[in-house]
């Protein structure tokens, strides 16, 4: 009889890269290159998320300010994201009805209110009132600049005339103070009691030396020219 040997390939079981990170580490076995590489990628991604500075994303609950159109300057909340260019907004506390709005015409703020996406106007109103959005936004520098701009647009001719005189008076006071400080720096090389780089104090002026009192020099009188005959 003839014996025939058949070679059967043995399939190795594939192990995941995270298999090396077991609860009981094996001291005699070092982690593989793939596991170390995967751990480095995970740590880098986590550190990147923790250091991420930009937080004003287009998302549900983000409070924004309309930049154009009929409701320019009013605060709204993003209820849902339609696509990359449009969102669904709602402003029940500012009188803005629910509508779709282009993302390019919105100024995103740092505030975000928590409510489910596509929530009703009642839910959005309660969330905005509980968040005290008007009080928080009124104390920001953004609102102060907007109020100053609106006040400047509503000035009369006489108000603009008074503003021009006030500015000229302010510039006169500032220029006089600047000349005074400049003179102090040039003379002493000091400003507010501290030396200024690139300047040197002027040498002190010496008092004029008094002249010694000696014999008075005789002043020769000019001889008279002979009279012409």
TrEMBL record:
Output the superkingdom of the source species: Eukaryota
Alphabetically sorted, this entry's keywords are:
Ribonucleoprotein, Ribosomal protein
Q: Where is the Large ribosomal subunit protein eL14 domain?
A: 97-171
Its Gene Ontology cellular component terms are: cytosolic large ribosomal subunit
- What CDD domains does the record tag this protein with? eL14
* Stretch list, region Disordered: 192-229
The protein's matches in InterPro entries, at most eight in alphabetical order, are given as: Rib_uL2_dom2, Ribosomal_eL14, Ribosomal_eL14_dom, Translation_prot_SH3-like_sf
Tell me the Gene Ontology biological-process terms attached to this UniProt entry. Answer: ribosomal large subunit biogenesis; translation
What are the Basic residues biased-composition ranges?
A: 202-229
Q: Matching Pfam families, A to Z?
A: Ribosomal_L14e
Per its record, what are the GO molecular function terms? RNA binding; structural constituent of ribosome
The record, for SUPFAM superfamilies, names: Translation proteins SH3-like domain (SSF50104)
Protein family according to the UniProt entry: Belongs to the eukaryotic ribosomal protein eL14 family.
Which protein is depicted? Large ribosomal subunit protein eL14
Organism taxonomic ancestry:
Eukaryota, Metazoa, Ecdysozoa, Arthropoda, Hexapoda
């Amino acid at each position: 009889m003839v014996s025939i040997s058949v070679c059967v390939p043995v399939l190795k079981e594939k192990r995941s890269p995270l298999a090396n990170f077991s609860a009981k580490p094996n001291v005699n076995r070092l982690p593989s290159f793939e596991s170390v590489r995967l751990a480095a990628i995970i740590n880098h991604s986590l550190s990147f998320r923790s250091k991420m500075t930009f937080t004003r994303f287009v998302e549900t609950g983000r409070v924004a300010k309309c930049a154009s159109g009929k409701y320019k300057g009013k605060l709204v909340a993003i209820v849902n994201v339609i696509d990359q260019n449009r969102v669904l907004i709602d402003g029940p506390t500012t009188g803005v009805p629910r509508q779709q709005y282009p993302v390019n015409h919105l100024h995103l703020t740092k505030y975000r209110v928590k409510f489910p996406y596509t929530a009703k106007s009642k839910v959005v109103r309660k969330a905005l009132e509980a968040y005290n959005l008007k009080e928080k936004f009124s104390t920001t520098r953004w609102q102060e600049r907007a109020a100053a701009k609106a006040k400047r647009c509503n000035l009369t001719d006489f108000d603009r005339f008074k503003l021009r005189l006030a500015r000229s008076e302010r510039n006169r006071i500032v220029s006089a103070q600047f000349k005074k400080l400049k003179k102090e720096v040039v003379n002493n090389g000091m400003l507010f009691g501290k030396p200024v780089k690139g300047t040197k104090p002027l040498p002190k002026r010496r008092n004029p030396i008094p002249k010694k009192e000696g014999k008075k020099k005789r002043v020769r009188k000019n001889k008279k020219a002979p009279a012409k005959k």
